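Colleagues,

For the teaching module next term, I've prepared a clean inverse folding example: a structure given as tokens, and then the sequence designed for it. I'd like students to try predicting residues themselves before seeing the answer, so please don't circulate the second half yet.
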């Protein structure tokens, strides 16, 4: 995929799941990667396993503190050119509204919403100055369809899709590309790491994700959409891929289906 050849790509959530698969495929496509997640040791292992590890760098950040993370990133990156920012880091949720602490909602919003804004605002001025660059956010089908047990996650993902829509409109005159990726059910550890009502991790997978497409296939389709400079693309299979379309044209049916799950 020649689109990524020689480009500087900043990828968050790069240590596992979709992010790891994106890192592997981007490296194979000739990109120069800046790999971000919380743990530098894990990122360093990822880097050394990539094609041409010397081309890539590690930037460990705690995105649960977005403004602090953006400041640390600014200091680390300096004047380095970023051609593509891929906001992929995120955390999901598995808890009923009645059982969920407010702090859990805040944590979800910090990581899934405010971190996207903070890092986007960091790279945006230089992209505008160069009239070149692409902002990508890996959101979710949960940003189009509200479901049980994911109220905070739904809220953050609905919000980030709206932010990206506004960003796309504002950046059109500056020649920048804005792409939203909406995965459906993907076979990763996302449910295992999801926050429960008290903020602890769920600790196991759910059958919906286990039956989803692989992280590698999700990454492949996502990179195709990024290279094609698509505005928005749903990545998945079965009901999770159809859900946004059904929500648009048959919202009553979708509400009934979700209520019965």
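(Answer key — instructors only)
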């Amino acid at each position: 995929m020649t689109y990524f050849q020689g480009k500087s790509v900043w990828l968050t959530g790069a240590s596992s799941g979709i992010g790891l698969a994106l890192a592997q495929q981007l490296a194979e496509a000739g990109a120069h990667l800046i790999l971000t997640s919380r743990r530098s040791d894990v990122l360093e292992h990822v880097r050394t396993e990539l094609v041409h590890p010397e081309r890539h760098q590690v930037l460990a950040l705690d995105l649960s503190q977005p403004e602090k993370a953006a400041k640390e990133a600014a200091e680390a990156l300096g004047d380095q050119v970023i051609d593509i920012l891929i906001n992929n880091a995120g955390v999901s949720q598995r808890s009923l509204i009645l059982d969920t602490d407010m702090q859990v909602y805040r944590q979800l919003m910090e990581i899934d919403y405010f971190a996207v804004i903070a890092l986007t605002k960091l790279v945006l001025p230089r992209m505008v100055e160069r009239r070149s660059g692409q902002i990508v956010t890996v959101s979710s089908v949960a940003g189009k369809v509200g479901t049980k047990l994911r109220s905070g996650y739904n809220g953050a993902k609905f919000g980030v899709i709206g932010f990206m829509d506004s960003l796309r409109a504002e950046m059109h005159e500056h020649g920048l590309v804005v792409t939203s990726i909406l995965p459906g059910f993907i076979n990763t550890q996302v449910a295992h790491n999801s926050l429960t009502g008290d903020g602890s991790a769920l600790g196991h997978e759910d059958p919906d994700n286990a039956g989803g497409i692989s992280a590698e296939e999700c990454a492949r389709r996502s990179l195709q959409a990024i290279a094609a400079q698509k505005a928005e693309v749903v990545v998945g299979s079965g009901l999770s891929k159809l859900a946004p379309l059904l929500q648009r044209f048959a919202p009553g049916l979708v509400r009934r289906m979700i209520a019965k799950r």
